[in-house]
Amino acid sequence: MAISSTSGVVVARPPVSRVDWLAPVIAAIILAALPFFLSGYMQDLSMKIMAYGILALSLELLVGTTGLVSLGHAAFFGIAAYATVMLSAPLTSTPSIGWLLPASMACAGLYALVVGALSLRTKGVYFIMVTLAFAQMAYFVFHDTNFGGGSDGIYLNAKPELALFGATLIDLNDRMHLYYFTLGSLVATYALLALILRSRFGRALSGIRVNEQRMLATGFSTYGYKLAAFVIAGTLAGLAGFVVVAKDGVVNPEFLSWHESGAILLMIILGGLGSLRGSVIGAVAFVLLKEFFSSEAILGRLADHWQLTLGLTMILFVALLPDGLIGLGRYLTGRGRRREGKTH
């Protein structure tokens, strides 16, 4: 559906349902309460899921909203992680979140600007291959040279903190502070993207996904819109990189690898393209499935072949749920409404 405006045609904004805002709020409240009931291991797993939720949301802006399938998204994730460690390495004091986080995200955003400016001049499979090529180039820079510690990676000397007037507000060396910082980052990312999607800019991106030629014909500079989306997505991926390196204290070239980019893409496909909630659900499902299939305590020797079992499970999910896990809820809701209509 489209609506006319003085500058062209943009995709109409769908009405906001109660589920659209109530489900994320309930989920955030539950996540906020979880640390008081979880073990240290489960808290770490929850933070990993939330970090990958940020990463999946950032790619959703490109793939699900704008229709740009990228196989190099992990490059921005890894570059921000490396920037976090390398910018703080020369310091003798604890780095501040106030400047280190924006600087790390800016490094990811700057690389996204360069990659986007060049790759967006191509389309289709050529765009996919160019983004993959740029990601692999960054991967081999860190993997095959001493820049960034080579294949072994580098460690974070001190986890950042945020202090104001001598009082420490956030100390990422504290598990609870780190947990709520990760949760806050996920909530902020979700809220930002929700606002973007409801804006004229977001509707223009949706119009590009549906029919870019029509958007061009109505006077929209689609290249500028796509580049802006690409940079925003890369910068948000940088936020995920900062969170992960703050949690684990180490970064290595695998952060930038092509299979990491593929995993992020699988998350949003598993959850359901075109949905912010679906992206987060996909990240949750993917991380938990990977954790399950790689657990020797549960599967024994079969855990050594977790890539195979995870791959077969993904194929099964995609075959049975073409709209993703979010589509399962919609299907069940729709079926319930049809039954209710027949009853009445």
From TrEMBL:
**Family annotation (InterPro entries):** ABC_transp_permease, LivM-like
Topology of the protein relative to the lipid bilayer: Multi-pass membrane protein
- Indicate the transmembrane segments per the record: 21-42, 54-85, 97-118, 125-142, 178-197, 223-244, 264-289, 310-332
**In the record, what terms sit under GO molecular function?**
branched-chain amino acid transmembrane transporter activity
Q: Which residues form a coiled coil?
A: none
One Pfam assignment: BPD_transp_2
Q: Does the keyword NAD apply?
A: no
| Compartment(s) where it occurs, according to its Swiss-Prot or TrEMBL record | Cell membrane
Q: What PANTHER family does UniProt report for this protein, alphabetically?
A: ABC TRANSPORTER ATP-BINDING PROTEIN, HIGH-AFFINITY BRANCHED-CHAIN AMINO ACID TRANSPORT SYSTEM PERMEASE
The name on file for this protein is: Amino acid/amide ABC transporter membrane protein 2, HAAT family
Q: What is the lineage of its organism?
A: Bacteria, Pseudomonadati, Pseudomonadota, Betaproteobacteria, Burkholderiales
